[in-house]
Amino acid sequence: MISRIEIKILFALAFRYFNLLSSYYIDKILPKPFELHFEATYRCNCRCVFCKRWKEGLKENLRKKELKYNEIKELINQAYDIGVRILSLSGGEPLMKEGILSLMEYAKNKGLITSVNTNGTLINKENVSKIIDCFDIIIVSIDSLNGDKQDAIRGFKDSFKKALNSVFLLKKNSKNNFIGVSTVLNGENINEILEINAFFMKKGIPTFFQPIHNNPANLFNVSKKEYLDFGLRLEEEYKKIIKNYIYPNRLIKYLYKDYYRKGLDFIMNPMSTINQFVCFAGLYSLFVDPYGDVFPCDICRCWMGNIREKSLREILMSRRSLHIKRQIKNRKCNCWLLCSAPVFINLSKVLNKNNLRSNKFVCPHSKSMENR
Ligand SMILES: C[S@@+](CC[C@H](N)C(=O)[O-])C[C@H]1O[C@@H](n2cnc3c(N)ncnc32)[C@H](O)[C@@H]1O
Ligand code: SF4
Ligand code: SF4
Q: For an engineered disulfide with 280, which of 121, 171, 284, 345 has Cβ 3.0 to 4.6 Å away?
């Protein structure tokens, strides 16, 4: 069954399509991003093997720099005014951010579709109904059905028990919310992807997976060797996954099947898939980090501005942003994240441009998180 939220998103996006196309081709037209990815904090109670954001969250000077309640409220207002209709929250562990539920309630009342990616360890009987009221879409990260393995991956004792309880609690209390599970496909769980999918689908909970990324710029850190070993072991298993994966409905199957199918190429050689989609980062979506810095996406840390210095509208129309937009058109970067690649692959299909030639992409504004 296609959910109410999926239909709402599709209709809203269809109305936005003309702006997306015109701002893609004509520089002077203000892009009206449809989705804002906001990383509320890099603080986190987990210590995942493939993500080093929690380390960033330990730095006292950065903690002090995080956007405050009223600044986030202003960000929501400005985002809504320029046309954002989906607010996707991530982090760090976003539920650790002070005042975040009240801010999301505010965003939802304003008319935004709200979504959160969480490690699921902080959801309990006491706060579940509030969380259900604040978020339309709640995606919990679960990387294995083996508790010990999940705890080792997440570097947090009982993370599996807690995350699983959260998923069931959310599902039980759901009021038409979209509750899903997301898995990072890595060397430890290749053989489990179908099992995870079948286990949750039986309970009416859709699952998604994204390949592990190795990208120091956004602190998705994996050693090169670990990454390569994983690719070599994966090929056969991946084909089985693609063949047998269960989708919750036809719409999700339509929107995600190419993302999964071509994902193997990305894992084997990330740069080989650079021509697989036109990138709409900065046009369809925008990314704001915990300190108010604006980037086109999570991976490409080309700095567009800071919301403490300029409004979102000014940032989007600045010469710097226009330059970055042109660079992205001829990009040298690539990613296969669930939050961007599936949408961009589908938008590219409509544009009939999923086989673009790319030139050299050198971002002059690159700002690695490690160099702060
Ligand atoms: C950075 S986390 C933030 C939200 C929350 N803390 C969580 O883990 O769900 C967002 C998503 O990125 C995934 N992730 C973390 N490191 C990754 C990596 N190296 N490659 C791909 N995905 C990764 C997480 O599993 C999660 O699904
Ligand atoms: S993936 Fe999520 S839970 Fe794990 S360390 Fe990174 S932010 Fe924390
Ligand atoms: S292709 Fe590059 S700019 Fe586009 S979403 Fe991926 S990393 Fe970001």
A: 284
